[in-house]
Amino acid sequence: MEQLIKEVSHPLETDTDLDVLLSEIGEARFVLLGEASHGTHEYYTWRMHISKRLIREKNFSMIAVEGDWPDCYRLNRYIKGYENSGESAKDILKAFNRWPTWMWANWEIVALAEWLREYNSGRSSGKIGFYGLDVYSLWESMDAIFAYLEEKDPGALQVVQEAMDCFEPFNVKEGFSYAERSYGIPSSCEKEVEDLLVNIRNRMPWFDKDPEGAFSAEQNALVAVNAEKYYQTMLKGGEFTWNIRDRHMFDTVNRLMKFHGPDAKIIIWEHNTHIGDARATDMKQTGLINIGQLLKEEHHKEGVYRIGFGSYEGNVMAGRNWGAPMKRMRMPRARQGSWEHLLHGAGAHDKLLFSRDLKHLVSPVGHRAIGVVYDPDYEYGNYVPSIIPERYEAFIHLDKTEALHPLLIEPDSLQMPETYPWGI
Predict the structure, then answer these.
(1) DSSP 406
(2) Measured between alpha carbons, how far is 147 from 209 in angstroms, rounded to an integer?
(3) Where are the alpha helices (DSSP H) in 187-317?
(4) What is the DSSP string of 171-183?
(5) Contact, 108 vs 406, CB < 8 A?
(6) pTM here?
(7) CA distance 44 to 53
(8) For residues 260 and 257, what is the distance between their CA atoms, to the nearest angstrom?
(9) Is-contact 54 22, C-beta < 8 A?
(10) CA 169 centroid distance within chain
């Protein structure tokens, strides 16, 4: 097995080593870039290199990430140079205050955002966008709708206020608390957020000449509907909330592609558990789906190319439990017999592999997945049984990786890390 991996793998050291990957991607309209953790520096920087080349060489239209719509839309406005959109990417990203803040409030994304802004400054039209696909931002999305309508259409504020008033008795500003406090109560705010969505859609033809602003208001209303549904069902257990979340992200991708027109192309940054085909893992047995599966099923004729990422050992940014302070943690060597262990055994260096060369791997193998909550001393359950060539079209193995660099509050921490590669 290790000998075969040696024969079919491609070295990955510099940006030019991506040439073969760009050739394999071809004319695909959907390129999904994964990660095996939410806190690894090299996953962000290699996805950045791939994304830059897709934008420059293959005319991709946007990057969409596993982040909240309202936060990411503010960054989208900045990188497109909209009026009153902010002075720097750093200032905007410091306002990303939903835990885990380090996922997007980090120096790696500052570098990407500033590059996108500079790239867009030379374009009169077709500016590259940056959007959030996730479903968690219930209150933030309603606040964003209120602020937009207060300026553009004050007559529509009543329906927004009714939705906000519905949540007020729960005395919360966080979805998990809403789920806990509303559990077992017959009434919910489902009708109010659905009425909000209908009202926004009915008024869209009369909004101002900023079509993206109107689109954003509608998207925030959709987030409110699906977030309320997500939080209402999360305490019931089972897989339903996972599917609500990934279907929302899938639908958001489709909306973005339709909004940007028939020539649109999209780059998606999400965890491997979202972008790798769920049908090639044990997720299938429990009825779980994900965005990688849904896009492949619906858009395979347009080209869907999914790239998984993984590493053998190093350090990672994570929290010991949900809401805990971020911490740079040791990531131990991958366990014996895992996919990452096999790749390391085939040579302790970074490499790129294509699934077309791995068709013989028809049995599931453990594939490491680290979330925002992590304990390196209890890592056994962090391996997802996966048929690798069916889960991705390509895989990037980074043998030893480091934790990413968060934007911390302390002033002495607000310095660009010296470890940034290639002067990015």
Answers:
(1) B
(2) 17
(3) 190-203, 211-233, 240-260, 272-275, 291-299
(4) T-SSHHHHHHHHT
(5) no
(6) 0.93
(7) 14
(8) 5
(9) yes
(10) 32
Peptide bond into 385 cis (omega under 30): no
DSSP 155: G
SS3 136: coil
**pLDDT by residue, tens only, the chain of 424 residues:** 788 899 999 999 999 999 999 999 999 999 999 999 999 999 999 999 999 999 999 999 999 999 999 999 999 999 999 989 999 999 999 989 888 999 999 999 999 999 999 999 989 889 999 999 999 998 899 999 989 888 888 877 888 888 888 877 665 555 555 555 555 555 578 888 888 889 888 877 777 667 799 899 999 999 999 988 888 787 666 568 899 999 999 999 999 999 999 999 999 999 999 999 999 999 999 899 999 999 999 999 999 999 999 999 999 999 999 889 999 999 999 999 999 999 999 999 999 999 999 988 899 999 999 999 999 988 878 999 999 999 999 999 999 999 999 997 443 444 444 433 333 3
Token pair listed for 209: 């000449």
- The terminus-to-terminus CA distance of the chain in angstroms comes to 36
Q: CB 16: neighbour CB atoms within 10 A?
A: 7
- Residue 307: helix, strand or coil by DSSP? strand
Can you state the percent helix, strand and coil of the chain, rounding each to 5?
55, 15, 30
Overall size of the chain counted in residues: 424
Burial 243-262 (b: 16+ CB within 10 A, else e): bbbbbbbbebbeebbebbee
